[in-house]
Write a structure and sequence with these properties.
The chain is α/β, with parallel strands linked by helices. The chain folds into two domains: 258 residues, Spore Coat Polysaccharide Biosynthesis Protein SpsA, Chain A, CATH 3.90.550.10; 71 residues. Helix content is 52%, strand content 17%. The protein contains eleven helices and eight strands. Strands 7-5-6-4-1-2-3-8 form an eight-stranded mixed β-sheet, sandwiched between helices. It is elongated and about 90 Å long. It starts with a helix and ends in a 14-residue tail after the last strand. It is a multi-pass membrane protein. Keywords: Cell membrane, Glycosyltransferase, Membrane, Transferase, Transmembrane, Transmembrane helix. InterPro entries: Glyco_trans_2-like, Glycosyltransferase_2, Nucleotide-diphossugar_trans.
Length: 348
């Protein structure tokens, strides 16, 4: 073949290699923000995220942000539409109702088709300015770069204490590693996201799921800030139920504890029965001891009800899983242009 004829083909081949090299050089990062009734906080938070995305873009990252409206009852969706209209790097996803933060995070992470995902709370307590540090550790080869709280500014002593106790308890009860004082503020690599998508359980304790998938993990210590606007949606009752979900999702220790309590109670009742029989044989039975009898009955009844409640918690989760309903439904979506975000499907 004439070398002059081969030259155009060679140039086209080299041009294709150059394009592929350029595409590989661009690393995609999607910042996922789940919001519920955060119309006041989002206009304050987004400029900070936009400034961080500018920094990332200058460093060779292709950033975008995906806001997930978890069925808000205020003007959150309207605020997000305004943000998306002003910033082409913004994608929106609106769920058909309030499914809860864990499901909203799942919905957002499901849409990240390529690159890594950075999870950020909409209340501004986790500073977006630290995202470049997370990206730096990700580029070192870590799949789960999570923020560990050194302090929790603006939170009551009771909330800090209960959170401290919860993380230590679940570390002891669960075989799955759950880092202490670590929330959802983290960066997940592409393969970590692919593994996470395989876990489709209904009662989702995301901190446990992040630990379950494993891979290379590293912590980024930081000081948690005050909420920038609005009120927290997690009261003590909701946090209590959240703790129960966490324990029952990753540990059968409560069932085992109920078994041990039942065994010890049965042994105690048997010993007490021997005592009553021996006392009646030696001193006779004068039909006394009504208070003691009532105390024993109430104690045993309480133990049985607690055990039944623990069993009911696990049976309820089996019941929810057996129905195989979608995790969430999407009401509206606004995809950002370009690669990096998924098709924003209507349901999952």
């Amino acid at each position: 073949m004439d070398p002059a004829q081969c030259a155009p083909d060679r140039r086209r081949s080299l041009s294709g290699v150059a394009r592929m090299t350029a595409e590989i050089a661009h690393v995609h990062l999607t910042i996922v923000v789940a919001a519920f009734d955060e119309a006041r906080a989002l206009p304050v938070l987004h400029p900070r995220i936009a400034a961080v995305m500018d920094v990332l873009a200058a460093d060779g990252i292709v950033p975008r942000v995906l806001y997930v409206d978890d069925g808000s009852g205020d003007a959150t969706w309207q605020v997000l539409q305004g943000i998306a209209a002003a910033d082409a790097r913004v994608a929106l996803l609106r769920l058909s109702r309030n499914f809860g933060k864990e499901i909203a995070l799942t919905a957002g992470l499901d849409q990240v088709a390529s690159g890594a995902a950075m999870i950020l709370d909409a209340d501004g307590q986790d500073p977006p300015e630290l995202i470049p540090q997370f990206v730096a550790r990700w580029r070192e080869g870590y799949d789960d770069v999570h923020g560990t709280r050194l302090s929790r500014e603006g939170e009551s002593w009771l909330k800090r204490s209960t959170a401290h106790v919860f993380y230590r308890v679940i570390q002891r009860l669960a075989k799955t590693p759950v880092p202490a004082d670590t929330g959802d503020y983290r960066l997940l690599s592409e393969r970590a996201l692919a593994a996470l998508r395989q876990l489709r359980e209904r009662h989702r304790f995301m901190k446990g799921l992040f630990g379950w998938i494993g891979f290379n993990r590293v912590a980024v210590p930081y000081a948690r800030e005050r909420r920038i606007a609005g009120r927290t949606k997690f009261g003590f009752w909701r946090l209590w139920n959240f703790a129960i979900d966490g324990v029952t999702s990753f540990s059968t220790a409560p069932l085992r504890l109920a078994t041990y309590v039942g065994v010890f109670t049965a042994c105690g009742a048997f010993a007490f029965a021997l005592y009553v029989i021996g006392k009646a044989l030696m001193y006779g039975d004068r039909v006394a001891g009504w208070p003691t009898m009532m105390a024993v009955i109430l104690f045993l009844g309480g133990v049985q009800l607690v055990a039944l409640g623990v069993i009911g918690e696990y049976l309820g989760r089996l019941y929810e899983e057996s129905k195989q309903r979608p995790l969430y439904l999407v009401s509206a979506r606004h995809p950002a242009p370009g690669p990096g975000a998924g098709p924003l499907s209507g349901a999952d």
